[in-house]
Design brief:
7 strands, alpha/beta, 2 domains, 253 residues, Rossmann fold, 8 helices, 7-stranded parallel beta sheet
Length: 253
């Protein structure tokens, strides 16, 4: 990767949290980064942080569950930054509720953003990767893939991301493309703050309680996930594919 022609990375849900930290880390690693979020304006802060540090990035607005918007996003990214060969499918939403209270809309929204979004983004990205003979796809799963009360939709989506990842690894490996999943444990983000609110707990108390059950005795940060993604998209990770890496501060029972 030369300074004149950096590889291009696409990170979805990159306006805040894990996505923003990942976009910033990949820019620091030398990649040009497309900061994708539902509204282009939402990615402005992430782009400014990257450019202020000397990196190259653009904000792109797209609903990842909409095929036309995904296609338009990739056309713009390719035109302004170059053909992308790195994709991080991080975009996600929560619609938590117990099964008997969960609406069809709660289910559909979560599955659409996480799974359909990852499918549409990966399908669009793989064309550029196949042409380049090189690619890295990282999908964000979760420890909730193992099951979590009040998250039937989210757990199903995150478990689906793991099967999707393994299938991509088998289909795309011969083209020089790897696919892996990162499954975070408790990470302090707006989403976990929303979970604390849902269960009626102060967020600081919520984090302290969570930390007592984690072997390293702390909750994770978005940067913890960004570091792992940084390795998986690197050239040095070319023999790592189809894996699910739990980044949770210890083994999960």
């Amino acid at each position: 990767m030369s300074e004149q022609t950096p590889r291009v990375a696409v990170v979805t849900g990159a306006a805040r949290g894990i996505g923003a930290a990942t976009a910033v880390r990949l820019a620091a690693d030398g990649y040009a980064v497309a900061v994708v979020d539902l509204e282009e304006s939402a990615g402005k802060d992430t782009v400014e942080k990257i450019t202020a540090a000397g990196g190259k990035a653009i904000a792109v607005g797209a609903d990842v569950s909409n095929a036309d918007q995904v296609a338009a996003a990739f056309e713009r990214i390719a035109a302004e930054l170059g053909g992308p060969t790195i994709l991080v499918n991080n975009a996600g939403v929560l619609r938590d509720n117990l099964l008997f209270k969960m609406s069809e809309s709660d289910w559909d929204t979560v599955l659409d953003v996480h799974l359909k979004g990852a499918f549409l983004m990966s399908r669009a990205a793989q064309k550029y990767m196949v042409d380049a003979g090189y690619g890295r796809i990282v999908n964000l799963s979760s420890s909730s893939a193992l099951g979590n009360r009040g998250q039937a939709n989210y757990s199903a989506a995150k478990a689906g991301m793991q099967g999707f990842t393994k299938t991509l690894a088998k289909e795309l490996g011969k083209f020089g493309i790897t696919a892996n999943a990162v499954a975070p444990g408790f990470i302090a983000t707006d989403m976990t703050a929303a979970t604390a609110k849902r269960v009626g707990m102060d967020f600081e108390d919520f984090k302290k309680a969570a930390a007592t059950a984690i072997p390293v005795q702390r909750v994770g940060t978005p940067e913890d996930i960004a570091h792992t993604v940084s390795f998986l998209v690197s050239e040095g990770a070319g023999f790592v594919s189809g894996q699910v890496v739990y980044v949770a501060g210890g083994p999960l029972d």
